[in-house]
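Ligand-bound model needed. iron/sulfur cluster.
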Amino acid sequence: MDKHPAAFEDVRPAVLGGASPNGGRPARLPAVDPLRCTGCGRCVAACPPHALSLAPRGWVKVAELHAPDDCSPCGRCVRACPFDAVRMAATPAPQAGRHGAGA
Ligand code: SF4
Ligand code: SF4
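Prediction:
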């Protein structure tokens, strides 16, 4: 039972395995392209943990990952978007303390 359903196609093993090089955060999180997002809200509705919301951006609203720590990341928002505005993107590794290199 080491295989995962298709819903997890965007999830990397490091996430499912628990430990990740990003301090416990998923290695990949959804990223919304505000230029493609129409604010339709389908990704918001598709997100089980309600990690996405619509946020004002000028005169319009665009989807925003307001709770990245709640993201599984299942990838449902990616598949729910009819405008190809959401992608799973690598999360930046946190600054892990100071390793020498003082300034
Ligand atoms: S990847 Fe899944 S949990 Fe994360 S924001 Fe998208 S729908 Fe929600
Ligand atoms: S489904 Fe796509 S277009 Fe609709 S709000 Fe989400 S990112 Fe924007």
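The first strand starts at residue 28 and ends at 32.
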